Every structure is written in structure tokens, then in C-alpha cells.
Amino acid sequence: MDYLIAVLGGYLLGSIPFGLVLTRMAGLGDIRQVGSGNIGATNVLRTGRKDVALATLVLDAAKAAAALVLARHFFSADAGMLAGAAALLGHCFPIWLKFKGGKGVATFFGTLLVGSWPVGVLAGALWLATAFTFRYSSLGALVASAAAPLLAVVFQASPIGIGATLFMSVLVWIRHRENLSRLIKGEEPKIGKK
């Protein structure tokens, strides 16, 4: 029952579409009609408002962190990881938006940094190194998410923690399938490219 409450609570927190809410509050219209139509920080940045994009990034990470901290406080560390993973699921498939959400990178890192900070820091370093070496943000996300379950094993996470991290990694890859296809074809836009 504890795990069920943690998962449901995490999913509902993760479903809060901060990108959509913040862009509307800023008078930028419906973010789903801009660029890729995604509700995440990368697409919010396409509006030209870096402040709104940064706020989206922080809040998308914070909602997963909050879900994890609350479940860990009231139940257990494993329940916390399940809540964080459920928050990622909620972000990617929010009930409020007919299950059409973001790609989950910020929410993924929010869970990792609070759930196991060494895993989060190393995965974040991999993302940065890959993204800035090859100039593809999506490639950085794919590399970091692929490495995260292995890092969870190295840092001796519990079986549930490893399973939750693996679930999140697979979900990030699923949400980036179009990016992966463009990377393979050499059509993915590079960081900074107009």
C-alpha cells in the first residue's frame, strides 16, 4: 500500500505541466503550438524567454525531487525512488494533457540527484560532456540515461532503486526515439543551431 500511494502521488505531481502553465502566465500562449509542441524546457526556450525556460527546467526537476522526498519521508527510500520514477512517467504522459507530455530529462535528473546524488552528478557530467563534445543535447540525454542504471549498480542502490532507474532510463529512450532516428540519419539539429 505504501508503494501504491507513493506511485500515485508521484505520478500526479509529475503530471503538473509547468512548461504549459508558465508560458501561459508569461503571455506566450500555448507551448504545444510552438516548435516541437513539447511541454519541456527545451521547447519553452524556443519562445525566446530564457527565464521561463529556466523556471520550467527547475520546476520539472523539483516536482520529481518533491515526490521522492515526500515518499521517502513518510514511507521508505525505495518508496521514494518509485515516487520519483512515477513522477517521470507523469511528466511524459500527464493525465491533464491527454497523456501528451515532455521527454523527461529534467524530471529524470531531479529524481537521480535527490535519490542518489553520486549517480545524479555523474550522469549529469556525462550529459554535459557528451552534449558539449558532440553538440547534441539529445545524445547527451541518451548517454546519461543509459549509464544511470549501471551507476546505480556501482553505487550499490537497492534492487528497487536499480529497477526504478532502469525504468526511467528506458522511458527517456522511448521519449527520444525521434531524436535517435534523426541522430542516425544525421538530421538532428546541433546545440546553438538556428
UniProtKB/TrEMBL annotation:
Compartment(s) where it occurs, according to its Swiss-Prot or TrEMBL record: Cell membrane
UniProt name for this protein: Glycerol-3-phosphate acyltransferase
Gene: plsY
Organism: Candidatus Phycosocius bacilliformis
E.C. number: 2.3.1.275
Pfam families: G3P_acyltransf
Pathway connected to this protein: Lipid metabolism; phospholipid metabolism
Gene Ontology molecular function: any one: acyl-phosphate glycerol-3-phosphate acyltransferase activity
Biological process annotations from GO: phospholipid biosynthetic process
Catalytic activity: an acyl phosphate + sn-glycerol 3-phosphate = a 1-acyl-sn-glycero-3-phosphate + phosphate
Key words of the record: Acyltransferase, Cell membrane, Lipid biosynthesis, Lipid metabolism, Membrane, Phospholipid biosynthesis, Phospholipid metabolism, Transferase, Transmembrane, Transmembrane helix
Chief location of this protein within or outside the cell: membrane
Transmembrane helix among keywords: yes
GO CC term, one of those recorded: plasma membrane
Subunit structure: Probably interacts with PlsX.
Superkingdom in the source lineage: Bacteria
Job description of the protein: Catalyzes the transfer of an acyl group from acyl-phosphate (acyl-PO(4)) to glycerol-3-phosphate (G3P) to form lysophosphatidic acid (LPA). This enzyme utilizes acyl-phosphate as fatty acyl donor, but not acyl-CoA or acyl-ACP.
Family: Belongs to the PlsY family.
Entry membrane topology: Multi-pass membrane protein
Membrane-crossing residue ranges in chain numbering: 6-23, 52-75, 81-99, 106-130, 150-174
PANTHER family: GLYCEROL-3-PHOSPHATE ACYLTRANSFERASE-RELATED, INNER MEMBRANE PROTEIN YGIH
